[in-house]
UniProtKB/TrEMBL annotation:
Signal peptide interval: 1-30
Domain Peptide methionine sulphoxide reductase MsrA intervals: 52-193
HAMAP family assigned to the protein according to its UniProt record, in alphabetical order: MsrA (MF_01401)
InterPro entries from the UniProt entry: Met_Sox_Rdtase_MsrA_dom, Met_Sox_Rdtase_MsrA_sf
A GO term for molecular function: peptide-methionine (S)-S-oxide reductase activity
Enzyme class: oxidoreductase
Source species of the chain: Populus euphratica
Keywords: Oxidoreductase, Signal
EC number: 1.8.4.11
Domain of life of the organism encoding this protein: Eukaryota
Gene: LOC105126700
SUPFAM superfamilies from the UniProt entry: Peptide methionine sulfoxide reductase
Name of the featured protein: Peptide methionine sulfoxide reductase A5
Catalyzed reaction equations: [thioredoxin]-disulfide + L-methionine + H2O = L-methionine (S)-S-oxide + [thioredoxin]-dithiol; L-methionyl-[protein] + [thioredoxin]-disulfide + H2O = L-methionyl-(S)-S-oxide-[protein] + [thioredoxin]-dithiol
Family: Belongs to the MsrA Met sulfoxide reductase family.
Length: 252
């Protein structure tokens, strides 16, 4: 039932190379990590209204990574949406779709831009699955809240259909119902597979990863799903930290 792994190993290779270059054994990075950084890394309450969008586009580990890396996305949460089963869980999600809830700052990124990323990040023609993942839980859905989102989603779907000509876009546009957050172990899943990045963040407790914008970004970075410019920017930051042995990665 778990999503097929899509972990690429080239990031690990890069990191290993970096470590070898500065000849530090993995376990003893000479980075001075303060004991208590977690509070400083928690997001302060925003003083502007954030907006929320929900999408389903296959395995939610990957979906979260895709959106988390975008500038303007403040927080991501994976969960279950679009079905009728009450209180779904990973091993028993009923008729829900694996989904990602994206909280974003509309002054930096808008709904149309999120829709573009949605279409570009999966195959909207695939029936009953996504990539190697087979099953109804991996279906493609745009969950809309209100008439404006519904309109924008509809227009973007028509555009996508025109682009794909004879293939049928099977993406559903569905009114947003209850979004059930998934179990903690599924949040920032890609980042959690990468102890090196966790260490660079000052080994933030797992619970604190959930609301962290930095964790959302690094989760995308770990999966190598950031836009190339951002992927490069984070590479540079990490290089810099490794060279200086300081500080902890607090923002990217
Ligand atoms: C839908 O949008 C309204 C207005 O923007 C917002 O107050 C509400 O919380 C949203 N509902 C959900 C389920 O996100
Ligand atoms: C994350 O934020 C939500 C909503 O603001 C809050 O209910 C939850 O307790 C926070 N989780 C952590 C681990 O801080």
């Amino acid at each position: 039932m778990a999503c097929a792994g899509s972990h690429s190993s080239s990031l690990l290779h890069l990191l290993t190379l970096l470590l070898l270059t500065i000849s530090l054994p993995y376990k003893s990075l000479s980075i001075r990590i303060p004991d208590h950084v977690s509070t400083s890394i928690r997001n302060p309450p925003p003083d502007y209204p954030l907006k929320t969008a929900v999408f389903a586009l296959g395995c939610f580990w990957r979906s979260e990574a895709v959106f988390g890396c975008l500038n303007g996305v403040v927080r991501t949460t994976v969960g279950y949406c679009g079905g009728s089963k009450l209180n779904p869980v990973y091993r028993s999600l009923g008729d829900h779709a694996e989904s990602v809830q994206v909280e974003y700052d509309p002054k930096v990124i808008n709904y149309n831009q999120l829709l573009e990323v949605f279409w570009a990040s999966h195959d909207s023609r695939q029936v009953f699955g996504q990539g190697p993942d087979v099953g109804n839980q991996y279906r493609s859905v745009i969950f809309t809240n209100g008439t404006e989102e519904r309109r924008l989603a509809g227009v973007s779907k028509e555009r996508e259909q025109l682009k794909l000509r004879s293939s049928v876009v099977v993406t559903q546009i569905q009114q947003l119902g209850t979004f059930y957050p998934a179990e903690p172990e599924h949040q920032k899943f890609e980042l959690k597979q990468n102890p090196f990045l966790r260490q660079l963040m000052g080994s933030l407790p797992e619970a604190d990863l959930e609301n962290s914008s930095l964790a959302a970004k690094l989760n995308g970075y770990a999966a190598e799903l950031c836009p190339p410019r951002i992927q490069k920017q984070i590479n540079a930051k990490i290089n810099d930290i490794l060279r200086k042995g300081w500080p902890v990665l607090r923002d990217v």
